[in-house]
């Protein structure tokens, strides 16, 4: 690509010292090329050879040239006087605009006063003051950018941009290549997924104490009873679940199911379908309801999971009617830190020793909780302080479902369960890591070290962990 006159000039870093790259040119990253990769397109090579050969033929004329930074600076000044967005090139003022740019480059911002003086015009006090300020700023900036620290910072920023480009290529695949319509590797690896942050309820809302009984504690559990109470009335419904009731749940609530019917302590219960029961409950609720429950994390998860599984119309109705949830468990922990535990039954025995509530019946639980809250005269501020929005619960549900799916795919990775959880929580599954491995020799390293929003690595910087994962995929290829 060069003429005989300069063919002996060693400009290539690999040729200068191959040992730096373990004598393998594939290990070298090109600082001036996209993603630091080699150019491999033969047509591009031929075109570049033609361009460079023309320049090589006149190398004697070009060899004495210095930096183009001064030219770039002048071009910016011209652009400020004659912006390309306006067609000044054929205007009568164009020559004057370019002349003004030349004067500013050579004389500084004070050129305006000199022009005024030569034209026997007053330079103007404020004009001169502004010109002096800009010249001082220009001089200060020139000195600061020429320091070692500034140069080092520019180098660091360039390295970060280059690294960001490498990560983008690993995540996006063949997004910016010629013939992209025929490219096969276009699946995008998701950027870092952040765990939903708790958002509190604000603004006016109506307190509704509520409780649910369920078939179990798992994410696939259904509701068997839902109850609520406000100042104006109460609601209670038994609903027929779609999944079996666990023996543990029956032992706690006394509710069982046989032949599609609900029973409590051997007596048949008047129950409706899950869809009807949840829809009637949501329609009964007042607008902007704040659902108050003891251990509301469980009750809110159950209500959101069931509503989402029934259908979009019920889920939308939930978001419309329910502003959020408030957890009295956290409130009573602060009010009575001396209690041995803060189960609702314990609190009731402490504060209402002679109560006759049948706990673990949703309606009685609600009545008991409302009585305790009124007895303690809990203000609205406390409810809001321990609240979280319905949207947060839905976002957390979606995040957890995605994380669980990712986690299952990562079982074969040779890392700890903690690291598998972290990888799954960031939005990656096994196929994403495999894509990164296939796209670049450093693909897994770049993907795992990519900074997240807190400027911490997405997964880890541990070379031991990264090498173990890379070795895993190396072994997969050998098989």
Q: Fraction of residues in helices?
A: 40-55%
User: What is the percentage of strand-forming residues?
Assistant: 5-15%
Class of secondary structure makeup: alpha/beta
| Biggest sheet statistics | 7 strands, mixed
Number of strands: 10
Radius of gyration: 35 Å
* General form: elongated
Strand arrangement, major sheet: 7-3-2-1-8-9-10
Low-confidence stretches: 1-8
Quaternary assembly: single chain
Q: Mean pLDDT, nearest integer?
A: 86
Distance between the termini: 42 Å
Q: How many helices in DSSP terms? A: 21
Provide a descriptive summary of the structure in words.
It is a single chain. By secondary structure, the protein is of the alpha/beta class. Helix content is 52%, strand content 10%. It contains 21 helices and ten strands. It has helices at 13-16, 42-57, 59-62, 69-81, 94-107, 111-118, 125-145, 148-172, 247-253, 274-284, 296-310, 312-321, 328-335, 344-351, 362-376, 380-385, 390-409, 417-425, 430-439, 443-449, 463-478; strands spanning 206-214, 223-229, 234-240, 255-258, 261-264, 267-268, 271-273, 289-293, 322-327, 387-389. Strands 7-3-2-1-8-9-10 form a seven-stranded mixed β-sheet, with helices on both faces. A three-stranded antiparallel β-sheet has the order 4-5-6. Strand 1 (206-214) and strand 2 (223-229) form a beta hairpin. Helix 10 (274-284) runs parallel beside helix 12 (312-321) and helix 14 crosses helix 15. The protein starts with 12 loop residues before the first helix and ends with a helix. Residues 1-8 have low confidence and may be disordered.
């Amino acid at each position: 690509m060069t003429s005989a006159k300069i063919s002996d000039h060693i400009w290539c870093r690999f040729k200068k010292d191959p040992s730096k790259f373990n004598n393998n040119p594939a290990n070298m990253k090109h600082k001036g090329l996209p993603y630091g990769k080699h150019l491999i397109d033969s047509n591009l090579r031929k075109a570049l050879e033609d361009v460079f050969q023309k320049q090589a033929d006149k190398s004697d004329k070009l060899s004495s040239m210095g930096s183009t930074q001064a030219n770039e600076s002048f071009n910016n000044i011209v652009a400020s006087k004659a912006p390309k967005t306006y067609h000044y090139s054929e205007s009568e003022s164009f020559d004057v605009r370019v002349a003004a740019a030349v004067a500013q480059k050579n004389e500084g911002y004070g050129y305006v006063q000199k022009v005024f003086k030569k034209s026997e015009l007053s330079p103007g006090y404020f004009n001169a003051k502004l010109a002096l300020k800009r010249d001082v700023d220009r001089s200060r900036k020139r000195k600061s950018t020429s320091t070692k620290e500034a140069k080092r910072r520019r180098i660091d920023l360039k390295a970060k941009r280059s690294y960001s480009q490498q990560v983008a290529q690993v995540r996006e695949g063949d997004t910016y290549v010629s013939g992209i319509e025929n490219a096969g590797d276009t699946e995008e690896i998701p950027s870092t997924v952040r765990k939903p942050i708790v958002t509190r309820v604000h603004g006016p809302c109506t307190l509704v104490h509520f409780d649910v009984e369920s078939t179990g504690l798992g994410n696939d559990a259904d509701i068997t009873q839902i109850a609520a109470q406000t100042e104006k009335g109460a609601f209670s419904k038994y609903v027929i679940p779609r999944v079996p009731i666990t023996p543990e749940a029956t032992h706690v609530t006394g509710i069982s199911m046989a032949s599609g019917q609900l029973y409590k302590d051997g007596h048949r219960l008047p129950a409706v379908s899950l869809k009807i029961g949840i829809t009637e409950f949501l329609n009964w609720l007042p607008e902007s309801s704040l659902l108050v429950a003891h251990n509301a994390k469980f009750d809110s998860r159950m209500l959101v999971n069931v509503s989402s599984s029934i259908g979009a119309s019920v889920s939308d109705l939930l978001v419309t009617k329910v502003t959020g949830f408030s957890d009295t468990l956290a409130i009573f922990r602060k009010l009575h830190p001396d209690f041995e535990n803060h189960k609702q039954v314990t609190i009731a025995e402490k504060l209402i020793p002679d109560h006759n509530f049948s706990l673990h019946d949703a309606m009685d639980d609600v009545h008991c909780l409302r009585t305790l809250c009124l007895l303690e005269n809990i203000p609205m501020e406390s409810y809001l302080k321990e609240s979280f929005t319905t949207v947060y619960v839905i976002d957390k549900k979606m995040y957890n479902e995605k994380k669980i799916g990712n986690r299952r795919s990562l079982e074969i990775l040779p890392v700890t369960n903690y690291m598998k959880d972290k990888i799954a929580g960031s939005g990656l599954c096994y196929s994403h890591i495999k894509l990164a491995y296939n796209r670049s020799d450093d693909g897994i390293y770049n993907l795992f070290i990519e900074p997240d929003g807190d400027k911490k690595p997405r997964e880890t910087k541990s070379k031991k962990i990264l090498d173990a994962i890379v070795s895993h995929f190396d072994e997969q290829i050998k098989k």
